[in-house]
Design brief:
Elements (H helix, E strand, L loop, with lengths): L2 H31 L3 H13 L4 H14 L3 H11 L7 H13 L3 H14 L7 H4 L12 E6 L8 E7 L2 E6 L10 E2 L4 E2 L2 E6 L6 E2 L10 E6 L5 E7 L1 E2 L2 E2 L10 E9 L2 E7 L9 E6 L5 E6 L9 E8 L2 E2 L3 E2 L10 E6 L5 E5 L9 E5 L8 E2 L10 E6 L6 E6 L9 E8 L2 E9 L10 E5 L5 E6 L5 E6 L4 E8 L2 E9 L8 E3 L2 E3 L5 H5 L4 E2 L9 H17 L4 E7 L6 H21 L7 E6 L14 H7 L1 E8 L2
Parallel strand pairs: 26-32, 26-33, 35-36
Antiparallel strand pairs: 1-25, 2-3, 3-6, 4-5, 6-7, 8-9, 9-12, 10-11, 12-13, 14-15, 15-16, 16-17, 16-18, 19-20, 20-21, 21-22, 23-24, 24-25, 26-29, 27-28, 27-30, 30-31, 34-37, 35-37
């Protein structure tokens, strides 16, 4: 080869290579701008392998994985991007969100703090920086979660149950004969499908709901004759107007059931070309439609709205306000028959990305996270359950282990477990009425305060899969504590936890007697003392037939020590005689002794008459109970 030609080739090769990489860069950016993120990622990664425009392409890869809700890959690139100079605060926020998706919560908080310091919307992260724990749902039902049998290798989500039929959204590509691929995900466009709650084949809904654009999710009126569904701005086989960014926004349409098929498609009047309106959910009485929208004037991102329906006429949409809506995003409302509102959000504190939350009718001012296993570190959304069968529900998620990008999971909703038991006496096995039973949570906070009935019974409802410290108390008994473990109780509706209390070794408490008092310089049993001794007789005969006691009798300080000792002995003897004469075996009183003035109740140098009376007494001591 000619030497000059060879040298020229050496100069030209880098230039040709740069030209090729520049072309790839333009192609990758064009794909990104066209929302074809899966295709763009392939080109961006190729550019990085060739070390071309490294900082920029790392940013675009991080952004692409963020938009595809893939935190594992997004974190890998954001970790490098946030070290670049001049990075926007919004990047810190997105990185923090993706860190939550891989459960690196402390690291996420660090970057949220940085975003709060440099960003323009610090309120957006205040709740996440709060050190308080996630406000989890206080309801007592428990959830068991399993993948639905009708999932596919594509995205499946957004269930609604009507008359033993599950309607759902899927990208499996069977809903329209002109199947198109959605560049954002690389999957077919979404359509609406149905399957029996008992299983069987999956089929597209009949009629005119499914088109070449996205459809779903749906909700159906209580009478089953009207379907409200989400679709891109597309009606009568024509695309609607795009917004200023070239986005074909979502709208809510309604369809009517005509001869077994869904037809007469109409756009709802509050839909708009310039912002999205979707995710409809109708109330049980059919009078209110809830939905999600990023309409201007909301709390930020996408918000939950509601609108009244009156004979087919819609009222003015109403934003649900800052209790529900946040500067983040709220989607997929579902209003249950009891009025509880479920929705998904990335603006309320949760376990990762989108979590499912509930606002109950009992606590309308509080948003509660449904907790695990309904929620995971990734996106969890579209929570629903059947009005006919409240023990069965659905949630959608892109958590690991599914078949496709998003999958539908069946929920077995277990009713609270009935915890019941009996509190009894350890000596005679008799029930203890009016004992208090306290149930605590794992933090030692009281969650239930109960009182036993006449038969010593108590009952309450508790959540499964928990350990509850429990305590039983009664003034006549030694306190008893224990732990109720409700794990592995799925096959049970109730759990029995009995508690046995040992009586206190105090006759006065057990028999509920007052002290046995004597008149001055007397040893006879007074009528008031006889009533108290009768209580002791009853206790020893009927409650504790093996109770053994001793008697101690005392005097006031008037008189000599020797005289008082003998007076006290006479009082002890009369007390003993009374018990024996009323049927108590002598061997159950092992000792009856007079102590004179040596053990005063009130130790006073110059006692008044009331103090003297308190010192003239007989008292009892438990020797053994059984």
């Amino acid at each position: 080869m000619n030497k000059n030609y060879f040298l020229l080739l050496l100069f030209l090769l880098p230039a040709l290579t740069l030209t090729a990489q520049s072309g790839k860069q333009k192609r990758a950016d064009r794909l990104f701008e066209d929302f074809a993120y899966t295709k763009a990622i392939e080109v961006y990664e190729d550019l990085l392998e060739n070390e071309y425009n490294t900082d920029y392409n790392q940013q675009k890869l991080a952004e692409s994985y963020y938009l595809l809700r893939d935190p594992e890959n997004a974190v890998k690139y954001y970790e490098k991007v946030v070290q670049q100079p001049g990075v926007s605060p919004e990047t810190y926020y997105k990185y923090a969100q993706m860190l939550r998706g891989v459960r690196e919560y402390e690291k996420s908080r660090e970057w949220l703090k940085k975003y709060q310091e440099e960003g323009k919307n610090p309120k957006q992260v205040e709740e996440f920086l709060n050190s308080d724990e996630i406000n989890t749902y206080k309801g007592l039902e428990s959830f068991r979660i399993n993948p639905a049998s009708f999932n596919s290798q594509y995205s499946d989500f957004g269930t609604f149950v009507n008359k033993e039929t599950v309607y759902f959204t899927s990208a499996r590509g069977d809903g329209d004969t002109k199947t198109k691929i959605y560049d954002w995900t690389g999957e077919p466009f979404l359509d609406v499908y149905k399957v029996s709650t008992q299983g069987g084949s999956v089929t597209p809904v009949s009629g005119d709901v499914n088109t070449v654009r996205h459809e779903g999710p749906v909700t159906i009126s209580p009478d089953g004759n009207t379907m409200y569904f989400t679709r891109n701005n597309y009606l009568n086989n024509r695309n609607g107007k795009k917004d200023d960014q070239g986005v074909n926004n979502l709208k809510i349409y309604k369809a009517s059931m005509v001869n077994g098929k869904w037809g007469n498609i109409e756009e709802l009047p509050f839909s708009n070309d310039n912002y999205s309106v979707g995710h409809p959910s109708i109330s049980a009485d059919g009078k209110t439609l809830y939905y999600a929208s990023d309409a201007p004037g909301g709390q930020g991102g996408s918000d939950i709205y509601k609108v009244s329906i009156n004979n087919g006429t819609f009222g003015t949409p109403e934003n649900l306000g800052p209790t529900v809506n946040t500067p983040g995003n709220e989607f997929f409302p579902f209003v249950a028959k009891n009025g509880n509102l479920y929705f998904s959000s990335d603006g309320h504190k949760g376990y990762g990305l989108l979590d499912v939350f509930v606002v109950t009718t009992a606590e309308p001012g509080k948003v509660q996270n449904l907790g695990e296993p309904v929620n995971s570190s990734l996106d969890d959304f579209s929570f629903t359950y059947s009005s006919e069968d409240k023990s069965r529900g659905y949630v959608s998620s892109n958590r690991p282990g599914g078949q496709g990008n998003d999958d539908i999971y069946e929920l077995n909703i277990l009713a609270p477990l009935v915890l019941k038991g009996q509190v009894t006496d350890s000596i005679n096995n008799k029930p203890i009425p009016n004992a208090t039973v306290r149930l605590m949570n794992e933090k030692g906070q009281q969650i239930a305060f109960l009182e036993t009935d006449a038969e010593g019974n108590y009952n309450t409802e508790v959540k499964r899969d928990q350990s509850y410290p429990i305590e039983a108390k009664h003034i006549k008994y030694v306190d008893k504590t224990g732990t109720v473990n409700t794990a592995n109780t799925d096959d049970k509706t109730e759990m029995v936890y009995n508690m046995i209390l040992a009586p206190v070794r105090d006759v006065e408490y057990l028999a509920e007697i007052n002290k046995i008092y004597f008149d001055f310089d007397k040893s006879n049993i007074r009528p008031d003392a006889a009533k108290e001794l009768d209580k002791l007789v009853n206790l020893m005969k009927n409650d504790y037939p093996e109770l053994v006691i001793e008697i101690g009798s005392h005097t006031d300080k008037r008189g000599s020590e020797e005289y008082n000792r003998k007076l006290a002995e006479r009082r002890a003897q009369s007390t003993y005689d009374y018990l024996v004469s009323h049927g108590i075996e002598p061997d159950r009183i092992v000792k009856y002794q007079g102590y004179g003035e040596s053990q005063p109740e009130v130790d006073c140098a110059s006692c008044n008459e009331e103090q003297h009376q308190l010192n003239r007494r007989s008292i009892f001591k438990v020797v053994k109970m059984k």
